[in-house]
Design goal:
The protein is α/β, with parallel strands linked by helices. 34% of the residues lie in helices and 16% in strands. The N and C termini lie far apart (34 Å).
């Protein structure tokens, strides 16, 4: 739905080059009808999440040059939360350790940024 609302803008949609846990592949994105709406690239690695030092130069350039980065899923949340740029996360908290650390419940859906999480933790007296 968000991608449809951004019609006419350049959207790069990154997927895994091959199946990893439950991450989307190019075939999944095409099957979901995203092919005509976005530019599909893979991140060049089979590691869970997005481990930037392992990603392809093509992916890293797109990541660095993007006006906005939206990362979905807990693995991306765990691997990109200290990236050297703003990343907006959409994820469901699936792990009790992550839930406790950030002050959420297991199963909660969050849309956040690392700076928002830091402010939340500071306000609640949690970890920086």
């Amino acid at each position: 739905l968000l991608i449809e609302q951004l019609s006419g803008r350049r959207i790069i949609y990154a997927v895994k080059q091959s199946p990893v846990i439950n991450d989307a592949t190019r075939e999944d994105a095409i099957e979901a009808g995203l092919g005509p709406l976005v530019e599909l690239i893979d991140n060049g690695t089979d590691a869970p999440g997005t481990v930037l030092p392992l990603c392809s130069a093509t992916f890293c350039e797109a990541f660095d040059r993007a006006d906005v980065v939206i990362a979905k899923g807990q693995a991306n949340f765990e691997t990109l939360n200290e990236a050297d740029r703003d990343v907006h996360f959409l994820t469901q908290i699936k792990c009790a350790v992550i839930a406790r650390h950030y002050g959420y419940g297991v199963g909660d859906w969050i849309v956040t940024t690392p700076s928002a999480l830091a402010r939340r933790n500071a306000y609640q007296g949690g970890l920086p």
